[in-house]
Every structure is written in structure tokens, then in C-alpha cells.
Amino acid sequence: MSTWPNRKLLDLLQIEVPIIQAPMAGSDSVALARGVCSAGALGSLACALLSANEIRDAAREIRQGMARPFNLNFFCHTMEPPASAAKEKWRELLRPHYGRLALDIDAVQETRLRLPFDDEVCEAVEAVLPKAVSFHFGLPASRLMDRLKKLGIRILASATSVREAAWLEDHGCDAIIAQGFEAGGHRAMFLETAVASQVGLFALLPQVVDAVSVPVIAAGGIADARGIVAAFALGASGVQIGTAYLFCPEAKISPLYRQALQHATDTGTAITNLFSGRPARGMVNRYLREAGPLCETALPFPYAATLVTALRTASEEAGSLDYMQLWAGQAAGLADALPAADLTRKLASEALDCLGV
Amino acid sequence: MSTWPNRKLLDLLQIEVPIIQAPMAGSDSVALARGVCSAGALGSLACALLSANEIRDAAREIRQGMARPFNLNFFCHTMEPPASAAKEKWRELLRPHYGRLALDIDAVQETRLRLPFDDEVCEAVEAVLPKAVSFHFGLPASRLMDRLKKLGIRILASATSVREAAWLEDHGCDAIIAQGFEAGGHRAMFLETAVASQVGLFALLPQVVDAVSVPVIAAGGIADARGIVAAFALGASGVQIGTAYLFCPEAKISPLYRQALQHATDTGTAITNLFSGRPARGMVNRYLREAGPLCETALPFPYAATLVTALRTASEEAGSLDYMQLWAGQAAGLADALPAADLTRKLASEALDCLGV
Description:
Two copies of one chain form a homodimer.
Chain A lengths: L7 H6 L5 E3 L8 H9 L4 E4 L5 H12 L6 E6 L8 H17 L18 H10 L3 E5 L5 H9 L3 E6 L2 H9 L4 E5 L5 E2 L14 H11 L4 E4 L5 H9 L4 E4 L1 H4 L8 H8 L6 E4 L7 E4 L2 H6 L13 H13 L22 H16 L2
Parallel strand pairs in A: 1-9, 2-3, 3-4, 4-5, 5-6, 6-8, 8-9
Antiparallel strand pairs in A: 7-11, 10-11
């Protein structure tokens, strides 16, 4: 019987399989997290778009008839409303795209914005008492960190560089997610600002492992057992997998998005700030080609999203990928479409076979 | 006694250690290649800046008292001289930088340009009869390929995507170097054009391995034994290592470049076309920050280099990194400064220990 070569993360989180299902705001689900947890790994739920009450409800559903560790994920950003000149410039940049979809940009309503972790949400998390909380874009204020740590909640956070990893360890993280350039969705960057100097997982992971003493979780470009084995070889204590879980029936994605993923190629994505204002990796479509992938006019996170939501919705309703937000990592082409529990078990058993004593 | 888990590349090239020292035009040397070969791996010599006679001389030196396989490397590009309007635009962009170094841009002489593999060079290679020839930027005309293959010379070439790998296999390559986004120096891109969609090694390698039947060599972000083990886990039959070999005393780099490498960080590089006209990864300095890292005005490869050479030289003479061409990959921070033979033996023995049965 094979065993994992490194038990640091298993022991920290009291799980059996060193896989974390990546939180994916808007695409993950209670069912997805439950499936992953049921196979002994760590299911996650992205909470950036949920209210405190919705978080309590979701946690109750995850726990229904199951006593397994799970993870709640939050963004840590500051809300800095843009000046009206910047808003106007962004509006004018998007106007022709609205025209193409026969939409009126001046009729757009405010949408629900991604909110940072705050006192109210912290209270909900204290009540829920998950095994782990993971943060993206840095960490919340130390008084909020202290409240979570006092309750024994394990704090995870993502780093895109050695410098960010060291900072996270210094500020009390129990484990660090090394997010390679390959990863789908938002870059965790919080000290780094240059997208052009973001680091591939092969180079990032061992350098982070050498720099910190807490367990390191490899993320980005891992979608099959080979990637898990390689991550352990580079010093990881576990992996975080996102895109591969989007293929699960439990993922809450539209049929068009699902179809696009099935045709994903290695070179089919780019890092763009066109949807939220922060750099994130998604599939290249007309919007990225014509307005980006990186665009200086995009409003800062999360304000850029307000004017993009209508474009995304109209595009999808018209059966077109042109303006859809199609977060995906560079290894989508390796993924298997299986239920979350089956996928988790398959990844674990194939990896253990390769690692086998 | 441990053995390599995959002997495809060892058998193809008749070597004992599945490491290829990356060819690095301007920085590699006969001594470096000999050191690597003497340890049972494959030393390489970049020939893009050498004449046919210089290639013959270098091969003779590599062979002096040693009968080991080695690799000669060539670029495959078409020479398309830019129009004078484009040349003028590039000159005007560089003029203030020349001014800063008190140089006269209108006095610049033509420099030796990187030349593609052609009939004359092919004749030299036929005479030299190396075990392997590796190509960058695609492959030469099929009649030249045929001449090499007829003599039993193994043909290697680099791919930055699954599509490029499949193309190279279809066109007769005996092994394919999967060049991850992390790699220092020139991107091998020949079908791909979007730098923003280049792929990290973690995602690229297994997808290339799945797509071709010839042995795959992992390149980019590998600078220690952990990287070698991880590459094998992802399906590689060998690795190509560049930046780590720049730390060897045999590497022909200036003291300033060497010093910069010793302080390299994970996020200290970017892909730039500012030196040659083609995208290549180097350390970020003032030139990259102010004019790039990617710049539409840069002349096409290799013509951009003509006006940059004087800047590079003057910068180095002034003891400044500002305009130096500092090719480096993202894992420079992992490298050990050892003689090439010692480094090769250390990498091999540490990797074998980890892979150990």
C-alpha cells in the first residue's frame, strides 16, 4: 500500500488526500465541494460573491450528513472607487462592444461586486467554524486573522512569488499556495504588480519551498496524476486543482462554457484584466483579442466588472463565446469529465501508484 | 543502483545522463560543452553566430581527446530585411537611449547577424558529423533535413505548444524539446505568435508527451535535481538545462552578467523582443522597463540587434546592467556555481537518488 511522501498538509488539515479543490467564484458549488470532501480531499467554496447569511446557509448544506473538513475562500482587496473620468473612459472603450450586441450601455445597473473579507463576514465564519479558510490577494487585517486563528481555523493563502510567500508566512499563514503562471482565474498577486514577470510553477514551486517552512501547495497547470507526482517531486505537500474540477457535472457552469472547455488547447488562454480589473487567466475570445488581453483603461478591481456583466450575459444568451468570462488554466486539455468524488479518487489513486513504494 | 525510469533519449543519443546542456549563443563555449559531455550528458554549442569554418574548428576542439556525443544548434529563420521606414522608426526609438550613453546612433556599423541554417553550414555539419543537431524556430528546408538524417545525425527541435510539437514530429524530428514559458533566451515559437498565450512547463510537458511518440525533453525552469525528477514524472525522457550552466566557470559571460545572475530572483525576468526582434526571456533592466518588455517598433529578427549591440557594449563598459542582454530563466535562483562536469554529475546523482528504486 502506497502512502503520500509528505504528510504535512494532510496532518495540518486532517484530510486523507492532499488535494484542494480550488475555490472558483461563480463556478464552484456546494455539491462540488461535498463530492471532493467525500473522497477525503478538501472541498472549497468561494465566498466573495456571497453575503454573510448565504455563507452560513452554504456551510450548513456542505455539512448535511457529512463531517469532513472544508475550506471557505475570500478575497482580500481594498475597495477604491474609481474617479468619474476613469469610469467614463472605460464606458467609452466598451461602448462599441455594447453596440455590437445591441445593448444600451447607459442603461446598465450596478451589479453585486466582489467584496473583501470584513468584520461581518468574519463573524459568519466564526459561527460556521470551517477547518480552513483561504485568502486571495493577500490577507485581511491582523485583528481578523487573530479571530480566526484563535478558533483553530487553518489559514491558507496564495503567493505568486517567493516574496509574497515569505510575507504570508510572516503574517501567520499555516500553509501557502504557490500559484503558478499556468493557473486559471485570478492571479493572487498582492505585492507583485508586473504580469510580465509572473512565474511558471516549475520555477516558482521549489523556490517557494526553499523560502518558507510551512507546507506549500502547488497550483496552476495540474489536471492529472502526473502533475500531482511532479508537484511532490518539487517539494509540495499538496496540490490545488481548479480547471479539472470545472469538468465535473457538479460545477455550476453554462453549457457553452463547458463546451468551450472540452475544446481547450494548451495555448488557448491568456491573462486578462478585462472582466474584473485584476489579471486573471481565461480562454481567449473576441473580447480579449480586440480589447486586451491586458488593458490600461479597465477600472480597478472589482469595479471593472459592473459594465462587463451585461456583455457577458448577452453574449451567452446569443449562444456566443465572444464576451463570456471563461476562466481556465493551461492544462484544461488534460482533464477528465467525472463526478467530483470519482475524479478526486482517480487522481489520488493514480498519483499514489506512481509514487508507490 | 538506481537507473533512469525512461531510457528513450539515452538510447537515441547514446549518452548516459539524460541532460542536454542548452545551447546559448554568445554564452556557451567549447569548454562548457566538453565538461558536460565528459560527465556523460549532451554538451551543445550554439552555432548561429559562427561561420562554417568556425563550426569546423569548434567541433575539432570539442573532440580533442574525447569521443563523446555532442550537439550543434542552429536557428531556422527567414531573413526578411525591414523597410527603411521601419528602420528609421526603430532608430528614433533608440536615439534617446544612445544619448544617455553619449553614443552617436548615426555612426553605428552593421554587426554580424544571426544567420539561419543553410547549404554552406549544412556542408560543415556533414563534415563534422555530430551525434545531434538541434534547431530553434522550426526546421530547415526538407532537403537539408534529409542530408542530415541520411548521415544518421539525430534531429532535435524546440516546441512551445502541442501544435508545434506535432508539426516537428511530422517533419522528421527524432526528439522534441518542450520549451516552457519559464525558459531563458529565445522562445522557439515558429507557428505560435502570441507571447501572452505561451505555456508553462507544468501544463505544456504532459500535453506534448501525449501528442507525440518521439522522446520529449523538458526545458524551462529546471535548475536542480528536483526539476529533473518532476520532468520525468510528467513524461519527459530528458531535460535541457540552460541558465544553471551559465553559473559554470566555463560559461563565456561577463563578470557583470555573472554577478546579476547570482542575485537573480524568481520574478526578475520578462520576455522581451528588444534585443533581437524575437521574444526571449532575460533579466529586467532599465531598457526593458522603459522600452518594453515587448515593443512593436523593434525590427524583426535578427535585424533589431544591429542597433542594440552598441548600447549593450557601452552599458557593460560603463559597469551598468541598464542595456545589457541578460538572458536568464525563472529558476536562476536555484542554480549552483560549479564546473560543468561537476554540476552535471551532481544533478544526475541527486535526481537518481530521488528516483531511486
